[in-house]
Amino acid sequence: MRPFMKKISLVLPLLNEVGTLGELHRAIAAVLGGLDYEFELIFVDDGSSDGSLALLESLRGEDSRIRILSLARNFGHQAALLAGIEASTGDAVILMDADLQDDPAAIREFLSHWESGYQVVYAVRFKRKESLAKRAAFRTFYRIQRLFVQVPMPLDAGVFGLMDRRVVEVLRRMPEKNRYLVGLRAYVGFRQIGIPVERRPRHAGEAKMSLRRLIHLALDGIFAFSTVPLRLVTLLGLLCAAAAMLLAVVGLFYKYVLHQPFLNWPYV
């Protein structure tokens, strides 16, 4: 390792990926081997129960760049990412999923744009390999999000991407509890660029993000960055109050002026 070599942290959250980790490590090592940086590979085990942690320990015996964070239980994808970010020490941090849907070859392009002055480089997904229903759901979500939020959000961009250390430190200091990292990454600004990266199929196993968690994440992505839902709820409340007051006035008019029940309601 040369003195003053830049250090890059890769943060990889995972849940029950024992069938993928070996191939993932080989693919990442093949990409990193041709790059003139120091690397740390931070695998965040989010409560796996299939032997993923044991396999990671074995891989760490072969590759000293590997660091392992083992969470006490399954906290969810965003929490695992944040744990990895907190533990990172690199001059730049790359976030990527551990299911090989994020192509490790894109790391070269991320670093090239970073060296040219961009502080955030993110993948814009295309040619997704999920089911038609899931592709349609993601496409719809990104466009509804852009319609409602006040922060310009890139379309079809997930967590896969690079952030400069300055960006990471800003994110770490933010007080939000339910963090939607893609939104916060767009919110903080800095020089950003998206690059097209083909979304690959899973190498093994099934998707770990349940429908409930996907919906929860989608709602976080909209409600955390928009006042439109709050304004709609406020408007609905005002309309209901106005309607109730109008009914009360009409009911009193019928009872005390016309001396007859309102709409045949005996108590009005």
Features:
2 domains, 9 helices, alpha/beta, 7-stranded mixed sheet, 18% strand, elongated, 268 residues, single chain
Summarize the structure in words.
Helices cover 45% and strands 18% of the residues. It has 2 domains: 7-223, Spore Coat Polysaccharide Biosynthesis Protein SpsA, Chain A, CATH 3.90.550; 227-268, no CATH class. α2 links the parallel β2 and β3 (66-70). The termini are far apart. It has 9 helices and 7 strands, in the order βαβαβαβαβαβααβαα. The chain has helices spanning 21-32, 52-62, 77-87, 106-115, 132-148, 165-173, 181-187, 211-223, 228-258, and strands spanning 7-14, 38-45, 66-70, 92-95, 120-126, 157-164, 192-198. With 268 residues, the protein is an alpha/beta fold. The chain has a 7-stranded mixed β-sheet with strand order 3-2-1-4-6-5-7, with helices on both faces.
Content-based structural category: alpha/beta
Helix content: 40-55%
How far do the termini sit from each other?
Answer: 86 Å
Q: Mind telling me the CATH class of the largest domain?
A: Alpha Beta
Q: Tell me the domain tally.
A: 2
Number of helices in the DSSP assignment: 9
CATH topology of the largest domain: Spore Coat Polysaccharide Biosynthesis Protein SpsA, Chain A
Low-confidence runs of at least 5 consecutive residues: none
Radius of gyration: 25 Å
